[in-house]
Write a structure and sequence with these properties.
Glucose Oxidase, domain 1, seven-stranded mixed β-barrel, binds N'-Formylkynurenine, KFase_sf, Kynurenine formamidase
Length: 249
């Protein structure tokens, strides 16, 4: 299926048979990525007495319980409710699902004992583009991102000035291939989350942050159509499935 779409008065064609899936699948093993000091997610058959809900074990159906944490176990999308006292649900606040998006690649820079991304880098990568969503691929971009135990790794993070810059550019949806846009351990400051959602100004309830994506090398930097889908959890965050489509002009 192909569609003709118009973004900011520019006409493009999109081929829906060529999705570029940025989500990391959730698997029930230590091969699943994990952050925030949790154990692996668990997917296992319901057991009641001698009944094990697996066809391979005599049941007529496979019927699994799934235990996971959206923030810790893979690709997830969160709204401001992640850091506000009042509970806001991402399912209540993400109501449209197609966005103009720009994929950029950033190389972290040394900053004291940390690795960070700066406003200068973000400005250079974004140029004059003003998309609704920014998709950040960080280097190195090894497949280990799909199975890594991130706990205690002090991953690279966005300086607050980057989150302010994206907010001021009008970007509503920020996607990144790390467990958080903020420092792993920051005494609860979450400077970039607070800046992007503007918690000290006018709370941006329609803005989302998606973490733990994986952007394959084959997806080149540039402009795309983004389909950002979540599972309908009434929660601050939900597992999500961001999918890009090339824009053919
Ligand atoms: N950086 C925060 C911790 C933090 O962000 C966090 C801690 C536990 C579970 C999830 C967290 N953040 C993101 O989902 C801190 O050091 O207090």
């Amino acid at each position: 299926m192909r569609a003709k779409i118009t973004i900011n008065s520019q006409d493009y064609t999109v081929d829906f048979t060529k999705p570029l899936d940025l989500s990391i699948p959730i698997v029930s093993s230590a091969k699943n990525p994990v952050a925030w000091y949790l154990d692996a997610p668990n997917i296992e058959p319901v057991k009641v007495g001698k009944w094990v809900a697996a066809v391979a074990q005599g049941s007529v159906v496979n019927f699994n319980n799934v235990q996971f944490n959206p923030h810790a176990h893979g690709t997830h999308t969160e709204c401001a409710g992640h850091i506000t006292e009042k509970i806001y649900s991402v399912n209540e606040h993400l109501k449209t699902f197609m966005f103009s998006a720009e994929v950029i690649t950033l190389v972290p820079e040394s900053y004291a004992d940390d690795l960070v991304f700066t406003k200068k880098q973000a400005q250079k990568a974004l140029g004059a583009k003003r998309p609704e969503a920014i998709v950040i691929r960080t280097l190195p971009n090894t497949a280990s991102k799909k199975s890594r135990n991130w706990s205690h790794t002090n991953w690279p993070y966005l300086l607050e000035e980057v989150a302010v810059f994206f907010r001021e550019c009008g970007i509503k949806h920020l996607l990144i291939d790390l467990p958080s846009i903020d420092r792993e351990s920051d005494d609860g400051v979450l400077a970039s989350h607070n800046a992007f959602w503007d918690t000290k100004g006018k709370l941006r309830l329609d803005a989302t942050i998606t973490e733990m994506i994986f952007v394959p090398h084959t997806v080149k930097d540039g402009s795309y159509l983004l389909n950002l889908q979540i599972a309908s959890f009434e929660n601050d965050a939900s597992p999500s499935k961001p999918v890009l489509y090339a824009l053919e002009s």
